Amino acid sequence: GGVGVGVTRPKRRLSRLITLALQNAFLTIIMHYSRISTAPSRTYSAATAVLLNELLKGAISVLIALKRIDATLSAPSSLSWSEKEDRREDPRPPSSFPSFIPTMLHPSRIRNLTKSVLSPDCYKLSVPAILYVIQNNLQYVAASNLDVATFQVTYQMKILTTAFFSVLMLRKRLSKGKWLSLILLAAGVGIVQIQSTAAPSHISPIVQTEGVQISKGNQLRSDIPQLNSERVMHPLRGFMAVTLACMTSGLAGVYFEFILKTQTGSGPAPDLWVRNTQLSFFSLVPAAVPILFARGPEGSSWLERVGGSFANFNGWAVGTVLTQTFGGLITAIVIRYSDNIMKGFATSLSIIISFLASVALFSYPITVAFVVGSSIVLLATYMYNAPSPPSSPTTRIQVAN
Ligand code: C5P
């Protein structure tokens, strides 16, 4: 019992953080490529991608919540625990429920989930929901206007906005050592960025061989063969999108954590997947608005315009949506079982992962700035997670004895 829990938990936590880091690295690359590999006139709609992401995430959250919800929730409390367990074992009523439908979709589960989702405090989720929809749209603006490395590195500034909101809203108290490691982290990220702007093109070889316009600062690099002459990146627009996305990321993440971890009223706090269902539910309206009011060719019907929003969804676009959905689910789990600040460290490691991948796959040169910056990022991660001073000597004594 006890030993098993002690051993598996940190391992699980670590594997979740590594999964998130890998997902982040992959998302940055695939999103950028999916955006810049076609002419703007043939690029899929970011708003549609955001909506599809929310729909998919919502559907998965509902299924997981249904699987986890107690089918006996509304059973009279006079039932003994074992009676409840019996019902849980076989929630099929003797009569009408057809056996070919999974028990997960049993009416009593659906009823209980609906009740949990429509709880009086569900409206709270509208705040992070709207913020996340804005953020997810901004991410596409940034990925379309900045190269992979610059986007990834500048987006790490969300670590500082997250720490700021965690202190403000969750009353987290960070020791001087932890603040120092956060500042080190930001500095390390900045140094990695120096290397990214100094190095030659660092986009995937697919892009390099097919060619694309890559802008550095405000200078357009035209020495690289161009994929399509219509595609131009606007770095300033990209940077503004990233800055806003860092704000919404910090605020929405911490707000979600606040809702998950603070007890309101009596009774147990709702399951993470009920919260996720509520989050997706409130995301649907802001995510659907741009599609419902989409403009289209003159004289086209509403249905044609809505249908047009789904045009150009090629494999890359679908891959981007799937990667983002997976990321949303793992992000929710990390926020629930660790916190937003730890999430920030995981995603900063994704920079190192994607650079190492570039070295291995695309023979990208390793520079001194990269080695120094990454080492600082790793050191900061270690420092942030090192046990606080009073507890470490005790641990050592225990080990020594
Ligand atoms: O960049 P950041 O880590 O803040 O991005 C978080 C992502 O995770 C957003 O795309 C957001 O929609 C998603 N998310 C989610 N469910 C949660 C929390 C975040 O899908 N409960």
From TrEMBL:
The residues that cross the membrane are 179-198, 239-260, 272-293, 313-337, 344-362
From the Swiss-Prot or TrEMBL record, give the protein name: Solute carrier family 35 (UDP-sugar transporter), member A1/2/3
The membrane-topology field of this record reads: Multi-pass membrane protein
Taxonomy of origin reads: Eukaryota, Fungi, Dikarya, Basidiomycota, Agaricomycotina
Cellular component (GO) terms are: Golgi membrane
GO terms for molecular function, please? pyrimidine nucleotide-sugar transmembrane transporter activity
Span list, region Disordered: 80-99
Ranges of Basic and acidic residues compositional bias?
82-92
Major location category of this protein: membrane
What species is this protein from?
Tremella mesenterica
Q: For this UniProt record, give its keywords in alphabetical order, as a comma-separated list.
A: Membrane, Sugar transport, Transmembrane, Transmembrane helix, Transport
The cellular location(s) given in this protein's UniProt record come to:
Membrane
